[in-house]
Amino acid sequence: DSVESDYETILVRREERVGVITLNRPEALNALNTTVARELVAAAEEFDRDESIGAIVITGSERAFAAGADIAEMAGISFREAHLGDFVGGWAALARLRTPRIAAVSGYALGGGCELAMMCDLIIAADTAKFGQPEINLGVIPGMGGTQRLTRAIGKAKAMDLILTGRMMGAEEAERAGLVSRVVPAAALLDEALKTAAVIASKSLPSVYAAKEAVDVAFETVLAEGLRFEKRAFYSMFALGDQKEGMAAFLEKRKPDFGND
Ligand code: CO8
């Protein structure tokens, strides 16, 4: 473990090939203000540029992953300021990073918190996790992908239910609905997330990037385009030393030694 930098609202460390970012505004249940946005995106971008990092874990506290955008910061914003200032626009950079991200969610993941979790590639939830898009209760709607990513993740029926009522959904329901990859006891959450991240980080980096990109295309486009993209990406893997090594290792009944090239 080593602390990488001094941030005000997040803690950043690395565990071998895994970068760990912990939201750290306990006084506001990790509400996402502009400082959190700037710091979290900067830390994640730094990990993304670092070839020795193969996966990123984003987590919060036991009580809250993040209880949403910071309502105190947002309350007074005018339409003009929102529109011209694009105050949630900076978050999009996070979703574009190549490095796989795991959200390790305990407690509340509401509004922007749920949206942040959905910007990750996998969500691992503690049995205490509560997901929701309660923006409707504040007289607004989700603004950081909630209406789009939640609908694609869990379908129209459940997305409408959650977004129109603002109710919370527990970890079990979230797993059944397909939002969450795994549910584990709260005490085991970080360990499970770190182990999963380490498994991903042990694979060939170029294959992981290609696999993630291809799944993302399925999420973002129509089937025909996705299949075309997948085939191109698949064929391109045969230019890699790691493809030769991975297949040779299988045929020789040994473990592959990937060189990430
Ligand atoms: N913003 C600012 N402060 C918050 C937030 C928040 N979203 N959530 C909690 N807090 C603060 C509380 O004000 C309180 O502060 P204080 O102790 O100074 O009064 C402290 O955190 C603890 O919270 P509570 O006392 O309310 O704790 P409870 O256990 O009683 O309740 C809840 C927990 C149910 C999570 C409750 O705090 C709550 O409902 N929070 C708001 C949830 C919400 O509405 N989130 C959606 C916000 S809108 C949004 O996310 C829009 C997204 C679009 C753009 C995203 C950009 C990032």
From TrEMBL:
Protein name per UniProt: Enoyl-CoA hydratase
Organism: Gryllotalpicola daejeonensis
Family affiliation: Belongs to the enoyl-CoA hydratase/isomerase family.
Catalytic activity field: a (3S)-3-hydroxyacyl-CoA = a (2E)-enoyl-CoA + H2O; a 4-saturated-(3S)-3-hydroxyacyl-CoA = a (3E)-enoyl-CoA + H2O
PROSITE patterns assigned to the protein according to its UniProt record, in alphabetical order: ENOYL_COA_HYDRATASE (PS00166)
Keywords: Lyase
Listed InterPro entries: ClpP/crotonase-like_dom_sf, Enoyl-CoA_hyd/isom_CS, Enoyl-CoA_hydra/iso, Enoyl-CoA_hydra_C
Alphabetical list of Pfam families matching this protein: ECH_1 (PF00378)
